[in-house]
Amino acid sequence: MKKKRQECLWGNRISSPRARCLLVIVVLCFFSLFSSQVSAQENRNISINKQNVPFEEIVREVEAQTDYSFMYSTETVQSIGKVSVNVTNVSIKRLMDAVLIGKPCTYQIEGKVVIIKIKEQPVQDTIRQKAVKIKGVVTEADGLPLIGATVVVKGTSVGVVTNATGNFELEVPADHDLVVVSFIGKTSQEVRITGKTEINVVLQDDVQSIDQVVVTGIFNKSRESYTGAVKTISASDLKASGNRSILSQISNIDPSFNIADNIEFGSDPNQLPDITIRGRTSMDVNVRNLQEESSVKSTANLPLFIMDGFEVSLQRVMDMDDELVETITLLKDASATAMYGARGANGVVVITLKRPEAGKLRVSYRGSVNIEAPDFTSYNLMNAREKLDYEVAAGMLDDKYNPNNQNLMELYNRRLIEVERGVNTYWLKYPVKTGVGNRHSLRVDGGSDNFKYAIGLSYNNINGVMKGSSRNTLSGNLYFQYELKNLKFQNDLTISYNKNKNSPYGSFSEYSLANPIYTPYDDEGHIKKQLVETISQTSRTPDPAGNPLYNASLPSRDDGSYTNIQNNFAIEWKITSDLFVRGNFGFTKQDSRTDKYLSREHTSFDTDEYKGENSNMKGSYTYTTSYMLSYEGNLTVNYTKTFNKVHQLYAGLSGNLAEDKDESYSVTGRGFSSLNMKNLGMAGAYALGKPTSTEAHSRRLGLIFNVNYTYDRRYFADFSGKIEGSSKFGSNDRTAPFFSAGLGWNVHNENFLSSSNAINLLRFRFSYGTIGSQNFSSYQALTTYRYFGQENYKYWNGAYMLGMGNPDLSWQKTKQLNLGVETSLFNGLVRLNVDYYNKLTEDLLTDINLPTAGGFSSYKANVGEVRNRGIELDANVFLIRNSESHIMWSVGGNLAHNVNKILKISNALEFLNSELLDEAGPNPSFLYQEGQSMNTIFVVRSLGIDPATGSELFLNKDGERVYTWDPKDKVPFGVNEPKVRGNLRTMFRWRDITLNATFSYRLGGHIYNQTLVDKVENTTTAAKRWGNLDKRALYDRWQNEGDVTKFKNIKDFNTTNASSRFVMKENALSLNTLNVNYEFDTEWLKRHCRLDYLAIGFYAEDVFYLSTVKQERGLSYPFARKFSVSLSVRF
Q1: Taking CA 764 as the corner, what is the angle to CA 762 and CA 770, rounded to the nearest 5 degrees?
Q2: Residues in domain TonB-dependent receptor plug (predicted)?
Q3: What total of structural domains would you count in the chain?
Q4: C-alpha to C-alpha distance for 804 and 783, rounded to whole angstroms
């Protein structure tokens, strides 16, 4: 059927590659012809009547009446000064002749671009004979020609502008040897021409110029008059900070974007990271999640991700191609995020995608080969001889401790023979491999002034270090922009498909626990199901240990996939040069599924539950499917006006409406009669119980306003607000106002600093506001019911109350204060930015206790307060910036310090805290307690190991020394959060070679060293005792009276509970990324290869990790070092 439909559509199937190429060329030619015809129809005459106004005002008027745009430098406009003109229905040429009459500038028109340039001054004939004629080309860092760049002989008015290919020719007087090359948004360069006739100039992005516009996702604001705390990241910044994931690249640039170190899942490509910006502001209402060694985290603190004005998921950002990104803006404080109302408290990440430029057809490609190598440096496991020595030292093979067991000596002899014959299995090597993946990105763009288009295709294949684990993403993008008079239409369609697989080798912890005396294969090379047989029924001999490799040899399935479709449409109407209206509508649809199959021979079914008559229920298949659909529409009005040269006003008004739907279903089948039955329909029966499902549906709407006023570019004020309504909250309180106000002072624009060569930028900012958070359940405010299912009474189905509603449930609000200072010294050689913030979150959503007679123990309410205070600092210094030698070297760093404190909690949490404190166990308690951090570690204080007995000595709450561990003696002992975290970076560029390195550091925090508990002392179970352990279990434990050690008696197999012995202060340093990039000479490429740009790069990521705490990292999935080689080309 599929074949027939295709033949009906095309008539005949197009199978020839030449025919396909011809089809693409015909389509592109059609678009170009169509846009040219439209352009020809839009030529209009111009009418202007302006007296004694700046030239920029004439430019704005022309751009409002026509489709022409202007290109000029700041120096050129300053030389024009003020102009007067009164014309009616004239062409662009006649207008420019009238405007520039008597001015030291001229113009040229190329297509729809008017290039303003300084006139070449007449030179005496004698000087002309001595003048040196030079020519050259000016390009961007990526090789694109710069049209309209100004090339001026320093100290004179002699100069030209570059043409459509970036080339220029200039006659330089004999008594001058320096030319200045400049362009808007680029760093100007001085080039010495002595002895040269040709020069090639590459202008780098001016970071300060890039920061001049703040993209908020709703309104674009001038950086000079913006009071919010933001960080703008360019595409070149992203490339310099890594080559794998946009999320890790952002974290390498700004430490306030914190990705929690995932000790449990390491470098697993299928794990979503835990991300916060400026600390945690929301509580996980299920406090028991905190007891999982902080590995289970709520999404309540996840920042909001906005892409081109629309919300996207964390998963979507993790899988997207960074080649599509133009800029990323982190919005941190209330002034920056108030316009997002109830979604802004956790910070906002605004992603702006690249847009095509008018001109010839451009084809860009970037590909890379990526290698991941497992990193075992954190593991300190025993070898086979050490493990046997430990078993002897611990008395596990000593008959005098078990006189009724005559087989222990036999067991020891057998193990000794194995060790002597060289058995020393390194189990860590079996489930891992060196993963080799690849990444490709292809983009075609072009068009005219009126019609622009871009077609993109990307593929990312990640092969993890655990065998069989992978993540593949295929994405296609189609964008077009069409301009008709004062209207602009845009549409951006992206379709992504992802396929991910988890390793069939199970958890990596099974291999780190396997005894090196055992071998996975028998003498005939067959894989063993059990590593050791039971010698006796006593508890002192090893129980049967399963071979972790056995399950990997069985048929299995553990994978997932999703298809995501996102379409954003926008229309913009430029009413006047000061007023425009923009409307956009977007929708996102995602279908997902996961499949997990375990064959009947899997060792998880070797339990009493599946013996006897239940043996036919072995094997399982779990199928889960989910569906997500969201709509969002926005209408925005922007007004900008300058009054009397010194008063600048910006005002914006926006309304938005959104709806989100989510559904998921899951069913499990059991009882598979054969090994390879990877189909749910082959199951003998459903699992006990019934299929499960979840459903969420919410709507929100809001009205946003923003006003910004600037006086004389020195003093400015910002006011933002949003009135928002959401269906997630109680019927009595579904709407809430959010606002922010800010003030700023551009000290560098004051008269007393205007002529300073030392201080180029000095800006003070202050802001205060209230924003909200709604990353919670859709139905938390409603009373919900669930049917009993198969149970009924007289053919009527019963239902029971699932959750008690609260019609007064309100918004969780965060009050934020921010103070900021921005400085730039000595023409940008030194830059320093500092921000201080204070965030107070009120009306936290937590549980409130109810009398048990009502049938419910708690319900949701607004009770609780959390405060975050901190400081952020970012500095950069150019040690060398020599344009003549083409050498640039900069060093920089940043830090983030945050103090989290719980000010108030509900009675339900207090009750649960008391329950958790009373629970004994080897893990520390993470509790919500007033006066403490949300990351405080609760343990019993330890006085160390008694040298006389080898037992641990504790300090109870009364200050008494005791040998008995009591959970009621737990106290706060350290915070699992560094006092300071940050990055250190350096960039060195010499001609076409660039080197970047980024380090990260953490100082002063405390961590609970679970490795010491699980792999050194807690050998209570046979699996741990007879499995492998950390070397410290043999060399550093107490063995004889008088030993001064950190760890208890080696023969003590009692449970080691959580104590302060294992709480350690950590200082850590890691090399996150190191890359070297080489860009080929642009002119040579054009002459010999017909290429516009060619570059190769080498990346190394997660190169090393140094810490003052020695513990195992990557327990269920190991960490990996990552290397890649990339190729970028454009023609």
Answers
A1: 150
A2: 224-348
A3: 4
A4: 5
In the prediction, which pLDDT does 402 show?
54
Query: At 350, which amino acid appears?
Result: V
pLDDT of residue 5: 35
Q: Any idea which residue has 């990292």 for tokens?
A: 1113
* Residue that finishes a domain, picked among 137, 172, 204: 204
Q: The CATH number of the domain where 319 resides is what?
A: 2.170.130.10
Decide: 232 and 213 in contact? Cβ < 8 Å. no
Q: What is the mean pLDDT of the chain?
A: 83
Per-residue pLDDT, averaged over 229-233, amounts to 90
For residues 133 and 150, membership in a common domain is answered with yes
**pLDDT grade for 454, boundaries at 50, 70 and 90:** very high
Same domain, 172 and 196: yes
Give the containing element (helix H, strand E) for 310. Answer: strand 310-312
CB atoms within 10 A of CB 615: 12
Q: Is the same domain home to 254 and 112? A: no
Question: Token match 């074949």: residue?
Answer: 3
Nearest to 39, CA basis, from 60, 67, 71, 64:
67
**pLDDT of residue 26 exceeding 60:** no
Which are the contacts of 816, defined by CB distance < 8 A and separation ≥ 6? 333, 334, 740, 767, 768, 769, 770, 771, 837, 838, 839, 840
Residue 519, pLDDT score: 93
User: Which of 397-406, 773-782, 1012-1021 shows the highest mean pLDDT?
Assistant: 1012-1021
Do residues 136 and 238 both lie within one domain?
A: no
**Nearest Cα to 900, choosing from 848, 833, 978, 813?**
978
Least confident range of 74-83, 270-279, 974-983: 74-83
Count of beta carbons in the 10 Å neighbourhood of residue 174? 12
Handedness of CA 923, 928, 931, 935 (dihedral sign): positive
Q: What does the pLDDT average to over 1080-1103? A: 88
Position 813 in a domain: no
Asked if residue 1035 belongs to a domain, the reply is no
Here the CATH number for the domain that contains residue 167 is 2.60.40.1120
Domain boundary among 178, 204, 230: 204
Q: Strand runs (DSSP E) across 487-604, as ranges?
A: 487-501, 530-532, 545-546, 556-574, 579-598
Instruction: Confirm whether 647 is domain-assigned.
Output: no
Q: Do 282 and 346 have their domain in common?
A: yes
In this structure, are 217 and 348 located in the same domain? yes
Q: What is the CATH number of the domain that holds 86?
A: 3.55.50.30
Neighbouring-strand partners of residue 171 = 133
- Looking at residue 130, its pLDDT comes to 59
- Distance separating alpha carbons of residues 613 and 593, to the nearest angstrom: 33
My answer on whether 190 and 236 are in the same domain is no
Instruction: Report residue 662's pLDDT band, with 50, 70 and 90 as the boundaries.
Output: very high
- Residue 98 inside a domain? The answer is yes
Among 86-95, 212-221, 281-290, 686-695, name the one with the lowest average pLDDT.
Answer: 281-290
pLDDT of 24 strictly over 80? no
Regarding whether 299 and 234 lie in a shared domain, the answer is yes
Residue 44: pLDDT over 80: no
Checking if the pLDDT of 997 tops 90, the result is yes
> What would you report as the CA-atom Rg of the chain, rounded to the nearest whole angstrom?
34
Residue 230: exposure state from Cβ atoms within 10 A (0-12, 13-18, ≥19): buried
Q: Work out the average pLDDT over 651-670.
A: 93
How far apart are alpha carbons 780 and 795 in whole angstroms?
A: 31
The domain containing residue 103 runs over which residues?
42-116
